[in-house]
Specification:
The chain contains one helix and 13 strands. The protein is mostly beta strands and about 240 residues long. The protein has one domain: monomeric porin ompg (Porin). Strands 1-2-3-5-6-7-8-9-10-11-12-13 form a twelve-stranded antiparallel beta barrel. A hairpin with a 2-residue loop joins strand 3 and strand 4. The termini are far apart. Keywords: Signal. It comes from Fulvitalea axinellae.
């Protein structure tokens, strides 16, 4: 009887740590999670889009308790007719934890990202301000979401949202996530997307992911269906 209780307690702890493992990464997908990097911790999250020659590099650092700084470099190469354009951007941002439930069952954070143009064909800056929520569902699953407001070149504004459901089968091993996100440009046009993917955790510090993202509504002549690969590493 005692052995059975010990096994049950260990299983619950094991499952809870598996959920925590997946929610501490902002990859995969578009959903910024509420988790904030611990003070002094450094994490690198990188991704590549196999369809549109797109790559993303994200570095997150816990500056002090409840606050992290992040920097991001992204590049997208795209075609217009027979011409290829490059649109690299660099951004710097911060995330501040304003609420954390007992046992990190739920968290709420504010975040702000300022994007600046780099050398390339793109020449715009963007400011994105949002709030993120992450909540644990049972012992193995979570729900994360965010709502944000963006301003591009002080001219074009938009409101966006993202929802993600994920489940982790074990602390080391496979997990599954599904995502829905959209952007409402200039309070007129709503563009929505859906995604589905797998994650694989190599322990507490490394996670890989593969996902598929597609438009739910067509708004261009070209297909934006994407296959994405990612890797997240906690350095210290």
């Amino acid at each position: 009887m005692m052995l059975r209780r010990l096994f049950f307690a260990f299983a619950m702890l094991f499952s809870a740590s598996a959920v925590a493992q997946q929610t501490k990464f902002d990859r995969p997908g578009q959903t910024v999670k509420a988790n904030v990097m611990p003070k002094g911790s450094l994490q690198v999250e990188a991704g590549v889009d196999l369809n549109e020659k797109y790559y993303l590099g994200n570095v997150r650092y816990g500056l002090f308790d409840g606050f992290e700084l992040s920097t991001n470099i992204q590049d997208m190469s795209y075609m217009v007719g027979d011409m290829e354009f490059s649109d690299p951007h660099w951004s710097i941002g911060g995330k501040f934890n304003i609420f954390e439930g007992e046992g990190t069952v739920s968290q709420i954070s504010l975040y702000d990202v300022v994007g600046l143009p780099l050398f390339g064909d793109g020449n715009v800056w963007e400011n994105r301000l949002g709030v993120a929520l992450t909540s644990q569902l049972g012992e193995t699953s979570y729900l994360a979401g965010n709502v944000h407001w963006s301003m591009i070149e002080a001219q074009k504004s938009s409101i966006g949202y993202s929802l993600q459901f994920g489940t982790q089968f074990s602390r080391k091993g496979w997990g599954l996530y599904a995502e829905h996100f959209g952007q409402y440009y200039e309070f007129n046009n709503l563009y929505t997307f859906g995604g589905l993917g797998l994650t694989y955790s190599f322990g507490d510090k490394v996670q890989a992911d593969i996902g598929y993202v597609a438009e739910l509504e067509e708004f261009s002549e070209t297909s934006s269906a994407q296959i994405q690969l990612g890797l997240s590493v906690r350095l210290f």
